Amino acid sequence: MLAEMPAPDGGAMLWPAPLELAGDGRGVTYTHYGFVDISGKLVVSQRYESYQYCTNRDGRASFVIASLSGQKDDIYDLTGKLLRPSPTTDTLCGGADRVIIRHVIDGESGKVDEGLFNVVTGKVEVPIRRNRHLTVVSPAIVNVSDPSGEYFDDLLNNARIPHPGFLDEQASIGQDLALIVTDRRRDLTSKSVKVGVIDTMGKWLLKPSLVEAYGFGAGFSIIRVGEQLTFLDAAMKQTGGTWDDIYQIYNESTGSVLGYEVSTGADHGLLGVDLAVIVQPGAADIDCGAGDGVCAVTEAGATSMIALPAAARTALPPGFSSALSPAFYGDQGSGEGRSQRIFVVGTGQVITLAAVSSCEARTNTWLQCEPGAGMAPPVVLDASGTVTPFSSVMAVADPIPEVGASYYWATSGGIEGFIDSKGTWRYQQSRYTQLED
Question: Which of 204-208, 249-253, 300-304 has the highest mean pLDDT?
Fold first, then answer.
């Protein structure tokens, strides 16, 4: 223990601490996880193989499911107290104060039977039944699918809401504006399935008439009309033009939509989250591969950066064509995604790396650059352009995703642990520690 690790909102939090362990002696390693509390102390030992944080109705992390093969999952509150074991060995987040409990019938095919368990009361609210499948629509609503039909389980009002159609899970997860449903279940032969839209009270907003639709991220669904794609708004009106392809651009931490890359033929453009045109469709080369809405737009040989959802452009200095983040640009002189010269936006400094490297930003605070094997050691730069003593840095998810990252998991020599945005160690452990039997 070195220092406290408070959450930004002052609430409780368990920070995930990985420990890499040697496997069977043939170079195989595996990772176990424990948890550090806000005092900087390891309060849950590093014995679990995986974990997942579950949120409350406001979207903040409220408890964690910790898993070890062959054993029932453990459910902890964010102080490190064991709330209770799950009834099953396979458990998923299930809405506010709930988890989905599962019996795996066939892992390869994904066939499972599911139910709903209240973590607070310790009661099974929806029992596991054959061919029953549950999907979290929002923190307050879970869809229950049985062979006989489907209904919404309203967790806040303890109500069952029947609805028509069958929820399209991939198009409706995390949505509470409108939900995509099909007129019958999808299977390998369902080529003529029609798609419609309902609200969370189970009422039709648009009866099945579409051949393809995607969820209402940021208020719009992407739908197929003939051979092209367009947008459907909350009033069930088509808007935003028609395109050959539409790609949603996400914030990787929150899952929220930040904008859209669109194309028609050889023309590419960029739309904002409100469908306003940011880059007029044309010959521009648009690269949003850096993640979290950072896009490099090259037109007429000049490159600028756009950090969605904002529409403002920032011109990259001559010789730099890769927007790694709002804080770092790369020269991309040796192929896609690889740089040797780094421009540090905060200071205007240019850093020349020892070898051409693949560089990835860790928020706007760090840049991690990995050269090819055996060429040079990895390098981590801070926002001022200083070469740090760290060989790797990874952002740690915050209990409130919109906040960003407060801490990072870093490696330096034989030490690893949590650092803050200034590079100060908050928790350390040896990289060579072995888990006791």
Answer: 204-208
Cα-only R_g, the chain: 24
Q: What is the rounded CA–CA span in Å between residue 422 and residue 331?
A: 26
Distance of CA 206 to the CA centre of its chain: 29
What 3 state SS string does 334-355 have?
A: CCCCEEEEEEECCCCEEEEEEE
Cα separations in angstroms, 107 against 110, 111, 112, 149, 267: 5, 6, 8, 24, 43
C-alpha 249/C-alpha 257 separation (Å) is 6
Q: What angle do CA 311, 335, 270 make, to 5 degrees?
A: 20
User: Torsions phi, psi of 154, nearest 5?
Assistant: -80, 105
Report pLDDT digits (tens) over 304-318.
999 999 988 999 999
Q: What are the DSSP calls for 115-172, one per residue?
A: EEEETTT--EEE---TT-EEEEEETTEEEEEETTEEEEEETTTTEEEE-SSEE-HHHH
Between the CA of residue 176 and those of 142, 201, 219, 242, what are the distances in Å? Answer: 11, 10, 10, 25
| Cβ-contact 155, 149 below 8 angstroms | no
* Partners of 30 in beta bridges: 21
Beta-bridge partner residues of 93: 99
Are the C-beta atoms of 98 and 118 separated by less than 8 Å?
yes
In the sheet that 294-299 helps form, which strands lie side by side, from edge to edge?
A: 285-287, 294-299, 302-307, 313-315
3-state secondary structure of 390: coil
Whole-model pTM?
0.91
- Per DSSP, the three-state class of 402 is helix
Buried b / exposed e over 256-293, threshold 16 CB at 10 Å, is bbbbbbbbeeeebbbbbbebeebbebeebebbbebebb
3-state secondary structure of 403: helix
Task: Give, in order, the Cα–Cα distances in Å from 136 to each of 10, 57, 177, 205.
Answer: 28, 12, 14, 20
Query: Under a CB-based contact definition with an 8 Å cutoff, are residues 116 and 101 in contact?
Result: yes
- 108: tokens are 């390869």
Are 175 and 167 within 8 A, CB to CB? no
Token pair, residue 157, equals 């009002």
Residues paired with residue 29 on neighbouring β-strands, in sequence order: 22
CA dist., res. 12 & res. 295, Å (int):
35
The H-assigned helical ranges of 339-432 are none
Question: Does the CA dihedral 255-257-258-261 come out positive or negative?
Answer: positive
Residue 260 pLDDT > 60: yes
Length of the chain: 437
Sign of CA dihedral 432, 41, 423, 396: positive
